[in-house]
Amino acid sequence: MSSAMLIGTLAVPADRTEPPDFDRGRQLLEQTDDVSQFSFDEPMDEIHDLMPDLDPAVEVVDEHGQPILRYAKQAGAAIIDRLEEALASSQTSFLVVAGYEIYFSAGRSWGGAPTDAADAMWNADKLPEPVLLAMGFIPDYSKPLARKNGSSGHVTDTDVVDAIALGLGTKSEWSGADELTWIAEVVGAVRAEPGSPTPAEYLRDFTEAHEFDPTNSNFLTQYVGKEADADDDQE
Question: Which top-rank group of organisms is this from (predicted)?
């Protein structure tokens, strides 16, 4: 029997200081009065799967095949319960990438404990987006945190590149040293701000901070100034 590895993910901003607020999500779910906010693909099957104790004969969808709000909300509550349990379990790990703390779990497609946690994350997408946001989750982290989700307190590497591209691209003339000053300040949002240490010190600090020597990169080494090597020779 063949199988595939399945991975479930869910993200929060990495600078969020509070854990996911599941109780807040439950409160907002109870206040939801628009069934179209739920994202069930096959509402009848999915709602029954989420509520195995429900009588299979109970009609959970209307004559148009749309979920009945009462049952959609009950299924949503089950999703939140399972998600809270999954994120607190040893089946779930997390990593921090580009301003996101991403929870993930995986398992084989034929089932098993880790797949249960992954299922809980996939099912989160069926909840109304305001409920996910109320709990602290980011519904779509396919784009940078600050630009995509309106966060004013966190800047990503991509945001900095965008800022520099716009700062230069929307001007017909560049003004030399003035441009270098503001570019250095923008870079300072995500890296040590250039300008204070000597070139050699900056290269050394960069290498130590990132555990990576940029002179070993075919791309980055062309941007490392010759003064860094010259300063090293003088030390």
Answer: Bacteria
Angle at 155 between CA 13 and CA 128, to 5 degrees: 35
Please provide the distance, in angstroms rounded to a whole number, between the alpha carbons at the two ends of the chain: 64
Tokens of 129: 């987006």
Q: What is the DSSP string of 144-209?
A: -HHHHH--SS---HHHHHHHHHHHHHT-S---THHHHHHHHHHHTTTSPPTTSS-HHHHHHHHHHH
Residue with tokens 């003035």, as numbered in its chain:
178
Could you identify the residue written with the tokens 């300063």? 231
Q: How far is the C-alpha of 146 from the C-alpha of 148, rounded, in Å?
A: 6
Measured distance CA(105)–CA(113) in Å, rounded: 10
pTM for the whole thing? 0.61
Q: Which one, of 73, 72, 113, lies nearest residue 89 by Cα?
A: 113
User: Distance between CA atoms of 105 and 101, rounded to whole angstroms?
Assistant: 13
